[in-house]
Design goal:
Shape: globular
Number of strands: 9
Largest sheet: 5 strands, parallel
Helix content: 40-55%
Number of helices: 15
Strand content: 5-15%
Radius of gyration: 22 Å
Length: 336
């Protein structure tokens, strides 16, 4: 179903992502792939659908803070792909399969590390392992997982790792491919970007989604949604689903989306929020942003401090060249 709010897991439910899937296919013999794109662009759906018919699993990294959390997510990822993985997991020390549940013993006698699991799978043939939103890891797991990625890259020829990230700069900072102190220094990562839909694709997506559930597309509302949500499939899905369920027209859904984005932006620092507000109000250069903030704060800002703040917002994939990458976040920034 096109208007299903959950990530798509089958190509038959995925709309017009042939290019991304073909790019992943071309890259699949590389040890490390980065699947990149802004928030709600559909990276997880593309990743899941690429796994269809292949041996492998996906690990959702969001919210992982402890080693126990990491192994719980690995277990969950194996469970979701158990139909393809069961016969390969049987016999691996430290793994117990009970019905549809997978338990990993990661401490004590007969324990299994993440690297150890991949080492055992590597002996059995080709596998794809996807780490979804891996940039959210924090120490000490950050260093541990980076070491695991380096070990896999150097030693496990049958394992391809795909790392997804919406905060593209943060993901690359996590990997440290250009940092001599990093175990991944000098390694090559093949990058695949999940693109936003064109205006024509967005309209076709919404029209097909309405017809899929037996409703005639409300073309005036569809045109508004296409114009506002700028090809970002997650927002288009939310609009379609909300309209079909009778929970609001375009204006109501747009307001809901802006509030969701604002709830994310309020977690940023005070200076970061001011920078976003300046850009949302039309500041299109470093100097204009500096003027806006100094007028608001009544203080002179150090050049290096402001530049660091702007670079961080770029790493979070919120802005580029003093423009918002998602118009919903631009509207949300005006309310900060």
């Amino acid at each position: 179903m096109l208007f299903d709010l959950r990530p798509k897991k089958s190509k038959k439910d995925l709309f017009d992502r042939e290019w991304e899937l073909e790019e992943l296919e071309r890259a699949s013999r590389y040890p490390l792939i980065l699947l990149l794109g802004i928030r709600r662009i559909g990276k997880t759906s593309v990743a899941w659908c690429f796994l269809e018919g292949r041996r492998g699993f996906l690990v959702d990294i969001r919210g992982v803070a402890r080693r126990a959390d990491l192994y719980e997510r690995v277990s969950r990822g194996l469970e979701e792909s158990l139909g393809k993985m069961r016969r390969f997991l049987k016999g691996i020390r430290g793994i117990k399969i009970a019905g549809t549940e997978v338990e990993i013993k990661w401490r004590g006698t007969d324990s299994l590390s993440f690297s150890g699991l991949l080492t055992e799978l590597n002996k059995l043939g080709r596998f794809i392992v996807i780490l979804d939103e891996v940039q959210y890891l924090r120490q000490p797991l950050l260093s541990e997982v980076r070491e695991m990625i380096a070990y896999t890259y150097d030693n496990l020829d049958n394992i391809t790792l795909i790392l997804t990230g919406s905060e593209v700069g943060m993901l690359k900072a996590f990997l440290k491919l250009d940092d001599p102190s990093s175990p991944l220094y000098g390694r090559y990562a093949y990058e695949v970007e999940v693109r936003r839909f064109t205006e024509a694709q967005s309209k076709e997506f919404l029209v097909e989604g309405f017809r899929e559930v037996g409703k005639e597309p409300p073309m005036e509302e569809v045109e508004k949604a296409v114009g506002f949500f700028d090809g970002i499939v997650g927002w288009l899905v939310m609009f379609g689903k909300s309209y079909v369920d009778g929970r609001g027209d375009f204006e109501a859904v747009a307001e809901m989306a802006i509030r969701m984005a604002a709830n994310e932006l309020v977690k940023l620092g005070a200076r970061e929020k001011l920078v976003l507000k300046a850009i949302a109000r039309g500041a299109r250069s470093w100097g204009r942003v500096k003027e806006f903030i100094e007028d608001r704060e009544g203080t002179v800002i150090a050049k290096s401090s402001l530049s660091r703040t702007i670079r961080r917002l770029e790493k979070l994939n919120l802005i580029k060249d003093y423009k918002f990458l998602d118009p919903v976040y631009e509207k949300a920034a005006l309310r900060l």
